[in-house]
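Worked Example 4.2. Consider the chain below.
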Amino acid sequence: MGLPVEDLLSTWRGLERVLGALPEDAPERNEVESAIQRLRGMYQRLTEAQDASARTLEASSNLVRRGVEVMEGARRRLAP
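Applying the procedure from the previous section yields the following structure tokens:
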């Protein structure tokens, strides 16, 4: 099994192809459409979480960088 997002997208694409091949009156259409909607929602949640993680990592990096600057400044002040 691949990465969760890759698996989700692969399944979503497969369902889209199946939906396109089903006749308009096929009883499975509602279930396929529902599955597509659920996958779309999960994809949005996953990608929002990734964006939030990226922002958190960037903020952490900025905090670390600023902490190092403060530490170096303090060390210079403490140096004989």
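The mean pLDDT is 85. The first helix runs from residue 4 to 21. Compare this with Example 4.1 before moving on.
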